[in-house]
Specification:
The chain is mainly beta and 316 residues long. It has three domains: 37 residues, no CATH class; 146 residues, Jelly Rolls, CATH 2.60.120; 116 residues, Sandwich (Jelly Rolls). The strands form five sheets. Strands 3, 16, 17, 19, 20, 21, 22 and 23 form an eight-stranded antiparallel sheet that branches. A six-stranded antiparallel sheet has the order 4-5-12-7-10-15. It has a six-stranded mixed sheet with strand order 13-6-11-8-9-14, with no helix packed on it. The longest helix is centred in the first third of the chain and has 11 residues. It is globular. The protein starts with a strand and ends with a strand.
């Protein structure tokens, strides 16, 4: 017998344990039984770059029609072996809708939203009402809200970053999904929506918050209660600033909204510019730095961890 940390552990003994295994059980005395001194992470930190994703979507537009496929998007799959999602509870994709196209309305138990990268006529339908989207706006599509995606431009594609909690909902085996046909041209237009976060408002809110938190971060929480599994924040990084280094039990995805900078995650350093997405797995130390200034929009799963008193953070 040996110890690993504070956890007692027995080695495998085939002669001793075969009868237990053959009867359809697993011996609970072998290994740690899932108990460890602190979380282990099987997702990797990573950066997906819009300069790489955009031409792939433009090429896909020549052979993928949203009238034939549910969505024309490319998934930001974590590079760790066997992963299809960005992190264990959160996921992002790049999506594009071509001139005059409409991706039909659907709804699902997954909470989601989108951060608009390019918009010249882009809109979302929300429960049968059309809401136009400007660049850097955020649109929330909560659990079971009908939403379709369209583009009224006759000459330009529109694009955005989708963010979702589908890894969490899938793991809990609670995904439901429905589709319906909408005549988008006849839907009423709403000038605003409680599910829309205008970028002009975000800039104004940041300007009203001059103070820095204990980690030297100038950031604000955005109104995201309709998607209760996720928390959204905007962080303004002034030129020459480096934030404090910390780690927590929350998964985090950072979308670069403006400027350029570096996010250091563990032993990795990721340069980012507008449209890039950086994944920070839970319990992995990270900080941001920039020489020229930038703004990041953060999506995290803190509300889930807080609901069960699992949220911990540590300055390192």
């Amino acid at each position: 017998m040996n110890t690993q940390g504070d956890v007692l552990r027995l080695e495998v003994d085939d002669a001793r344990d075969d009868a237990v295994i053959e009867a359809g059980f697993l011996p609970g005395w072998v290994g740690e039984g899932g108990l460890r001194p602190e979380p282990l992470q099987d997702f990797q930190s990573h950066c997906w770059r819009w300069k790489d994703g955009k031409p792939l979507l433009q090429e896909a537009a020549t052979y993928i029609n949203p009238a034939k496929s549910e969505r024309r998007n490319i998934r930001m799959a974590n590079p760790a072996p066997g992963k299809r999602t960005s992190l264990s509870t959160l996921h992002c994709s790049y999506q594009m809708v071509g001139p005059g196209q409409f991706a039909r309305a659907h709804r699902h138990t997954v909470n989601a939203g989108r951060f608009i990268l390019e918009s010249d006529g882009a809109y979302t339908t929300l429960d049968g009402e059309k809401v136009f989207m400007d660049e850097n706006d955020l649109i929330l599509t909560p659990n079971w809200v009908w939403h379709g995606l369209g583009n009224e431009s006759e000459s330009h594609s529109v694009s955005w970053i989708d963010f979702l909690d589908d890894p969490l909902v899938s793991h809990l085996q609670t995904i439901f999904f429905e589709v319906r046909n909408e005549q988008s041209s006849s839907l009423p237009v709403q000038d605003s929506s409680p599910l829309q976060i205008k970028w002009a408002d975000v800039k104004r809110w940041l300007a009203r918050q001059p103070n820095f938190d204990p980690l030297g971060r100038h950031r604000i929480e955005l109104p995201s209660r309709p998607i209760p599994t996720m928390r959204l924040l905007a962080e303004d990084l002034s030129a020459g600033r480096q934030t404090g280094r910390s780690k927590s039990t929350a998964n985090r995805l950072f979308m670069a909204a403006d400027g350029a900078g570096v996010t250091a995650v563990g032993d990795n350093r990721f340069d980012w510019t507008r449209g890039d997405v950086v994944a920070v797995p839970a319990w992995t130390p990270f900080h941001h730095e920039t020489s020229s200034g930038g703004i990041l929009v953060e999506i995290n799963d803190e509300p889930v961890k807080e609901a069960f008193d699992w949220y911990r953070t540590l300055h390192v």
